[in-house]
Amino acid sequence: MSGQTRYGLTRPTEAEIRAPGFSTPWDAPMIPPFPFRFRDASILTLYWRTDPDAIAFLLPPPLEPTGDIACAHIYQMADTDYIGPYGEANVMVGARLPGGPEGGYSPYLALSSDIGVAHGREVHGQPKKFANPSLEFAGDLIVGRVERNGIDVLTGTMPYKQHQVEAAALKPYFDFSLNLNLKALDHIDGRPAIRQLTSRRLADVTVKEAWAGPSTTEIRPNAQLPIFRLPVIEPLMGFFWRADFTLVPGEIVHDYLETAA
After folding, report:
1. Beta strands per DSSP E along the chain
2. What is the residue-level pLDDT of the chain in tens, covering all 261 positions?
3. Half-sphere exposure of 46 toward its Cβ, with a 13 Å CA cutoff?
4. Selection from 226, 233, 32 nearest residue 110 by Cα
5. Which three-class secondary structure state does DSSP give residue 11?
6. Residue 69 CB-half CA count within 13 A
């Protein structure tokens, strides 16, 4: 019976199940509703020059590459609504949708939160998998690692806080603040339900500090997290920064099923 109260909870109505932000199990939801806030995140951003053909191979059509630069953001999320502390890594390449937005496409994402994995895949269409990204300070060196299956798939370094910069300096190659993703979900009977390109931009971003320096990026092969398909031809700048931001709804920028109809 809808509306029944038990254990301090109210059973949802059919209208509430149809409403935005609903998640299962309904009495202990997995997916946070928008918006939710990230506080005091520490981020190591690494840029490297890679093979432009590799970028083009990883982009789903009709996305086009905007250059030959890849980057990885390794986050230590200190305090996040619903999720709590965890580590995340987002590998991105510059991309544009002809006649549409231009930003950073994510071929690989890895993180240490089951809630974050589920939310990213179900809502944004991000290709998230479980892994163990981490940041540490080894004397005068900042070290970021992404471990999966017992393999340090990516290891990056930069000097500890030598050259302070403004927030605008964090995006020298492409606007990674606009994130493009390929969302693909099927119905239970196997029919395609969603085939979309989505975009989202973080809101209420406050960069508390930002530092720049030369960086190194080392990638080791892993068939389940194949970042090695974006080989390091030349390591470029790195940035270490701390920020607060809010995750808000994004938009559908291309619908494959509608265009095929």
Report:
1. 5-6, 9-10, 36-49, 64-77, 79-80, 86-96, 102-111, 128-130, 132-138, 141-148, 151-159, 163-164, 178-186, 192-201, 203-214, 216-219, 234-247, 251-255
2. 556 899 999 999 999 999 999 999 999 999 999 999 999 999 999 999 999 999 999 999 999 999 999 999 999 999 999 999 999 999 999 999 999 999 999 999 999 999 999 999 999 999 999 999 999 999 999 999 999 999 999 999 999 999 999 999 999 999 999 999 999 999 999 999 999 999 999 999 999 999 999 999 999 999 999 999 999 999 999 999 999 999 999 999 999 999 887
3. 29
4. 226
5. coil
6. 19
Interatomic CA distance for residues 119 and 30, integer angstroms:
8
Catalytic residue among 128, 129, 161, 183: 128
Q: Residue 34 has which token pair?
A: 């928008």
Question: Which amino acid is present at 86?
Answer: Y
Are residues 112 and 76 in contact, defined by beta-carbon separation less than 8 angstroms? Answer: no
Q: Is 208 a catalytic residue?
A: no
Please list, in sequence order, all residues whose beta carbon lies within 8 angstroms of the beta carbon of residue 187, skipping any fewer than 6 positions away: 193
pTM: 0.95
What does the block give as tokens for 200?
Answer: 């989202």
Q: Could you give the domains of the chain?
A: 37-181+202-247 (2.40.400.10)
Residue 59 token pair: 């982009």
Sheet holding 216-219, edge to edge: 132-138, 141-148, 151-159, 216-219
The one-character DSSP state at 122 is I
Contact 104, 71 (CB under 8 A): yes
Among 118, 111, 92, CA closest to 103: 92
Q: What is the DSSP letter of 14?
A: H
